[in-house]
Predict the structure of Bifunctional GNAT family N-acetyltransferase/acetate--CoA ligase family protein.
Amino acid sequence: MTDTTHRPDTVHALLADGSTVEIRLARPQDRDEVLRMHQEMSPEAMRLRFFAVNPRYAQEAAERICTPGHRGHRALVALADGRVVGVAEYTMLPMAPGEPVSADIALAVAEGRHGQGIGTLLLEHLVHVAREAGISGFTAEALAENHEVLKVFADLGLRTSRHFDGTDVRCTVHLEQDEHYLAAVDRRGRIADVASLRPLLRPRSVAVAGAGRRPGSVGRAVLRNLRSGGLTGALYAVNPHARVIEGTPAFPSVADLPLVPDLVVLAVPAPAVADVAGQCGTVGVRALVVLTAGLDTGQAEALFTCCRRHGMRLVGPNCLGIADTADEARLNATFAAHPPLPGCAGVAVQSGGVGIALLEQFGRLGVGVSSFVSLGDKYDVSGNDMLQWWEADARTRLAVLHLESFGNPRAFSRTARRVARTMPVLTVDAGRSEAGRRAAASHTAAAATPTMTRGALFTQAGIIATRSIAELVDTTALLHAQPLPAGIRVAVVSNAGGTGVLAADACVDAGLAVPALDVGLAGELRAVLPPGAATSNPVDTTAAVTADRMRSCVDRLAAHGTVDAVLVVLVPTALATGTRDDPLLALTGAPGRRPRPVAAVLLDQEAPVRLLASADDRPVPAYAEPQSAARALVHAARYARWRAEPPGSVPPLSGIDPAGATAIVEEFLTRHPDGGWPDPRDCAALLDRYRIPQLPWAWAEDEDTALAAARHLVADERGRVAIKAYWPGLVHKSDLGALRLDLEGPDQVRHAYRDLRARFGDRMAGVFLQPMARRGIELFAGVVQDEVFGPLVLFGLGGTATELLADHAARLAPLTDRDVHSLLTAPRCAPLLFGYRGGGPVDLAGLEQLLLRLSRMACDLPQLAETDLNPVVARPDGVVALDVRLRLLPRHAHDPYLRRLRAARQWRA
């Protein structure tokens, strides 16, 4: 077993109380600090740690932990305010060849720091380092009375067993990262994240640094909003040239304040930001909001480093500010013109302009906000943090995001999947016009556009992705006011036939269904509507309909099992408008709650959308255009369908050999340090390690070997083979004429080989031979490792026209069973797989296995930059990959679920 020498960067992570610690590998200069931590332990803690009270043990531990270069040994330290507050170490155990690699571990936490989660956090990071080194298990010796450390192991989330021997207990921890472990990490991360955000969003005291004497300054506007908003805690201004600003006491510096504020809002010039932030950190401020824009690289680095060093959470820079409408805070630390209306929508945006627009729109609708965060340049606090805050906040029932970038998309997706099970998560899919990767070297990379990648994230996480701010507001209005539809069947009701037809068209265009109504239901409607009414679908009530008749019609439709939503289209007429028979009253005066969503289209309405107050306390969203209503309904229906499906799981796979695959990759990268395209033999070998089905193959570098290989591959002389030329860098063989098909007998094989050799000369390293596959549906499957999003699995129609037809769908790995089903049904060609026009279905189980194994291979091998299986031939009796191309790059594994705060390089990118 070769020990890894890859050292992780220093990282910062949150503890259970919301404070921050630094975690890194131990260094020789840490020896005195590690020794101090052990020497300050109580005699009882020393006995539990070393099984005896002996000062020499502390010295030996410090020496071992801080001496680098011991083979098979790693030690991590946790530091707070520059002092070591915890250590964790492992030492590999002797092993026989072929045995699983295990290591002994030891853990210690500083006196007085127990209960903060330091030991658990260190263990999570030690597990990560050990898994990189190929270690599969930990063992730890403890006294049976050491309940605290035994609980740490038990609660870690990994499979653990204990063996008692008198007063001692030996714990064995298996390091396989499964869903149970990730869920445990999620719970710990959520507790820590929410605790760290309390000083930011529910501060007990606030100071504004840079509140100017000039009425038009940003800092003064924030101070005014905080004061007028009724902030429940203490409020101060920081300005060396004033004693009072906006009726608020002012002090020369943060250090001069009468108390240490939880939150400081910075509206100072860019050159002063890092200095003021340093003052805040020194006195113990817990959170910063930096409104200042235009920081250069040095200023930005200094601000970020200061916040990490002092454990301050940071919103911004270059932001509009934050607000929280809870009674215990009443925080409006923004320079928006109008205060946010209290409500149920949590809002986080990167664009201040988008933030102002959403605050205005949600206020006008009456939806309001529970909390609002303008993330700005997003150095620290992100959409992921806000999702976890809203998840814990009982006031928040809608999560609204506008994100222009993702720091850790896989962690964000995991959090969003969990949160979307309890509340709708909405976003604007910004940046769809990006040109994509035009210079892609394979079909897979060509298909994997940024739009497709973001779409995969949104689809898998259950996020409602709209195409504009207006569409987001329209959808929010419906989700805020009405229940979720159970499906896509819409009943359209109108008091003017032509408008009903337009609304029906809008519904169908959006992806909804407008089916003919049940015969019995249609009869019920005829009995309550005026003579001459049409009761198919759309329902034309005629202009003579009264409020009572319209109410009876809508109530019957909303209660019927064949209808999922009701869309009422009304135009004003001289017959009833403004009277007690006005059909609009059917929507606003309903005596009881309708079980299915009802929306309205009022063609004379000026506002794009508004909420009509209703007697049942469930407002009815009214839209000026039927297209807006239809888009909102289809978003709600798709979200309801996603939420109704059980969460997926990643199925176990049999027969895979990740260690063997890693060895193939490492051997190739040893020969090609800059990476490249492995030859067909290595490609086939990698697929074999994951049991991905492929045709039999043979490699030949001369004519005689090619003839012998062809005879070996086919059962008789009439069997046909394919010959594919190969040289490093060759990707699109068909385009270059490097492929010969349907070769029968030795003469044709000989002629084809000679032709390829003459055509490509010494550039051709050899040929790859396979028997011709039987006909089937030609598909495409591939993987791209996105630098930010991780591995993306693509699937769709294959063959030579795969890029031209662009019939592809994508999902982020690792794929769950639900993801695979969604991936198979998403392309336009999907009906061909399930039996189109009487044809039998292909081997769907085989396709599912192929995609799951491809996903696992991509997750196991971060060096796998691109994988291209095209074509994959699917038949009723099996699935097989005919052609394989892989590209490998020297990359290290990255665990997106390891608890750590954002690093500087993430926001700099």
Q: What stands out?
A: The mean pLDDT is 90.
